[in-house]
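Memo subject: From amino acid sequence to discrete backbone structure tokens
Keywords: amino acid chain, backbone geometry, structure tokens, three-dimensional fold.
Body of memo: The sequence and its backbone structure tokens, given next.
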Amino acid sequence: MKTLPKLLVFLIVLFLFIIYHLSFIIAADAIPQPGKIPCDPNLKADPEYNSLRPYQASPCGDIPLSLFCGNTLILFLDNVKTIYCGQEWCPYIGPNPITKKVVVDLKDVELPILGNTELVKNSQNSEDKLDDATKVNEYVSWYLNGVVNRAEYSEGKNTDTELVNFSGPINKLLPGVIQEAQRIETIKSATEQEVTTEDDGTQTEQAQNHNQIVVCERLGKPVECYDGNGSKSNGAELRLNDWNEGNLSTINWVLNNWFGTEKWNSKIPPLPWQFEKEIYYQKAYNEWRGKTCAIVFDKLVCVELGIVPNKWADLYPYIPLANTVDKKGKKWKTAVHVTAPKAKILDSRYDDIPSFPPNFPLYFAHTKEDFQLAELLKKTYIPQEHASGSADSNTLKDFETTDPGQCQVVDVRSNPGDDVTFDNPESNMGASIEYTVGDIKCELTKKYGCIEEDPNTGECLVQGWIEDWKCESDVYAEIPLELQYPYIDKVWESTTVGADSIFRRIFPKTGKDAPVSCIADIPGESKANYSLDEGNSSPGVELLKVKDPGGNASDNPKLYFPHLGTVYEYFLKGIQTALRPKGYGEPITNGTECTPLEEEKKCDVNVPDSAVDSKYLGSFKSNFIDLANKWTSDCSGPENNLAEECYNYVASESKKAGVNPAFALTIWLNESGASNYCHGGETTQDFGINLSNIYQNIVEQLKAFLNMAKMKLCEGVDGFVEPMHGWLSRFQSSAGVCDPSDQTATDYYYEVMGTTWTYLTNCVKNGLFGITWPTDMSCP
């Protein structure tokens, strides 16, 4: 070959060079995108959704799953009746056992805080609905990735403004060579196989990542990949695997193989630790960048001839720094509990309906991506003495947290996130419930109403209490749902609470007099839509309520993701506040579940009388304090309660919340004798809020109570004497439902109205409360 004329060699090289480049000007034919994309390094589905979530509901590789509590579905199954037999409990007369079918669907779930590709530019959406500041302030994925070097924007987001303000801490702080090495790992993930265990226990090998589109280009320059109308990508697609295939350039191949000149000819960059000397690395790196180099007398000489393509280097930063695939979690029911407030359930059992399996998969975006990015960012915060990768845990105060198994929900954080997708029709859950009813309790009921009407006009002439025997009970099913989430606890630990987490590197000390007294365990919140599949369920079955993990039932169900509120509050908000000048950013909160200091459980004793309405001062206030001091005989006296110290605090906080202060004081007195911990012991619920992590905590108890007091509980539900009967009945209900036949809850209503409220206000009118709702300020 060396005898060939130089001109002929040049023409051959030029021809191969042109053919090589033209191959990328025309986009390759793309196959239609199926519903679920396999993890195949040779598959090129187009269009992809977004560079940070290419294929929805298409996971790759195994995942670590953590089990957390979910919601509890409360369903009405039946109403069973019998006739009065002259005894308290009368035999049930009816079919036994009873069988009911229940099928429930879950939809409209979003994963907040971790990322968002749905409200930004993607293959289906031509415009951003989130500005760049919102992206990086609200979402872990955008904060760590930054907005630069995304296939959707071409070079439109690579201006000085984005590079300075919105490029993210990894791009700013992590050395370029480490980023380049990390991108090589991402390239490898599209081809390297790993063993994946399926739900049925079978094991298969598949790639760890999809061969996703990295960037779209024309003549070596990036172009916006999508028009946002669902069409295929613009320009030529460069995918992860393209950096694995072939040589950097034909000219380098010719120089290496024809003339024996060693040139760097790999599409991926060289790394310093691959060379014996720094000058060899610099030569290879410049050649990767498209220059022609030689070492002359131990000096590196490089020139830009324009004959070696450098698009592989120019477009290399568009390669993601982490694995962007969805990860699979699970949601399934663990049991079915049949209850009947006024009947004995002798036996119950349930079976899954085969056509509606309970363990259908859910697919979560950004979980592995955020974990890998956080682990990458941690490398920039490792001091020299801890270069092995872990900070000295002895120098860091342990964080305070509620055991996830307790599933208490007091404070949450939320923002719009990517949809949690799932397979249909397996998204439905079904159970066949069989139960046997024994005796039914008979009760003498009292209802205040009209006992004599005018026969001509129908107008009520006399009102009074109507008595009747009632022998019936509703039957309910409670279906607790357990959830398995992928990587969320790892993201939480890596970003925020781990001894070597990013947040703990910036805030190494927590405690009294520190900017953060402790790190609260706060969940993230998402909307959820549970609906009963009436076509496949037994007639008469109703989905009544959905209880959150804290036991609170609601008509507006939410799904809670453990720890994500902590990531939002401390990692996203706290770090950014710490890195900004004093006075900028948002205050770093200690959270509502985080109370390591005893004084945080106590009220503000310095609230002045001027903060309290005058009608609640003077004799009204002295009467309350006197009642509190006499409330119990075993622990009486002012030394055993907080009536005097916290009276102004309770009254003023109630007023600020729009809740009748007299009603809040009534509940405080009725539930705990005004925080009489001597009488109530360690489980004292200052305002009747049954959350173990805020027992003997007047501040958080009052917050939770005031939030509940603003809700019109049981509004529009028939069978209650008056609205306050419904509210107090629901407040007291152990089942968390509006049940007019719940005698225990009804007794509580009469107790509060007839004793505490009367002693304090004397507002009872015609045997009823003088207010309609706790927010009614008309009385006293």
